[in-house]
């Protein structure tokens, strides 16, 4: 199962238009329809807010939306504490509440996270400044994280 972050779906939508890449979107539609491509509710809300056409398309394809159930909320809280984030004092350069929920969703569902958030070549000492790919590598998360292009390459599909 692939758990999509908003950044990766928006990247795909903006850079690979359906009219020009119909076979790519046929593949995505098939993966969405079989629940192999999923998205946490907060990520879908972000996609729908920023690119309403993409949100509508995902809805029409029958996207499986991961609800923030208790096990996800508990894991998110553990990740937040591990990062040293107190209350809602997120660092502007690091993950935010939605990012942590998305990572926790991938962890709980045993999925690979698809995120186009940039990798940090040198990790800041302040864990609260870590981005999604770095947080996924933490023991509490232990989730694989790939970009949209890496996912497409891994699929070995030809479009």
How many structural domains? 1
Fourth-level CATH superfamily: 5'-nuclease
Helix content: 40-55%
Overall number of strands = 5
Q: How does CATH name the architecture?
A: 3-Layer(aba) Sandwich
Which stretches are low in confidence, meaning pLDDT under 50 for 5 or more residues running?
none
Query: Helical element count?
Result: 8
Shape field? globular
CATH topology: Rossmann fold
- Share of β-strand residues: 5-15%
Largest sheet: 5 strands, parallel
Give helix and strand order, one letter per element, not per position.
EHHEHHEHHEHEH
Strand-pairing-aware structural class: alpha/beta
Ends distance: 21 Å
Strand order of the largest sheet: 3-2-1-4-5
CATH class: Alpha Beta
Q: Radius of gyration over alpha carbons?
A: 15 Å
How much is the average pLDDT? Answer: 95
């Amino acid at each position: 199962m692939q758990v999509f972050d908003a950044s990766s779906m928006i990247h795909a939508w903006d850079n690979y238009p359906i009219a020009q890449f119909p076979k790519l979107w046929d593949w995505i539609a098939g993966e969405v329809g079989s629940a192999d491509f999923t998205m946490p509710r907060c990520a879908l809300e972000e996609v729908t807010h920023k690119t309403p056409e993409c949100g509508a398309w995902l809805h029409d394809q029958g996207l499986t939306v991961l609800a923030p159930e208790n096990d996800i909320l508990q894991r998110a809280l553990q990740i937040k504490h591990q990062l040293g984030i107190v209350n809602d004092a997120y660092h502007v350069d690091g993950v935010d509440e939605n990012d942590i929920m998305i990572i926790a969703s991938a962890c709980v569902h045993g999925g690979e996270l698809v995120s186009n958030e940039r990798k940090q070549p040198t990790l800041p000492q302040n864990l609260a400044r870590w981005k999604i790919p770095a947080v996924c590598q933490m023991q509490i998360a232990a989730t694989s994280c790939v970009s949209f292009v890496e996912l497409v390459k891994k699929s070995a599909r030809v479009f």
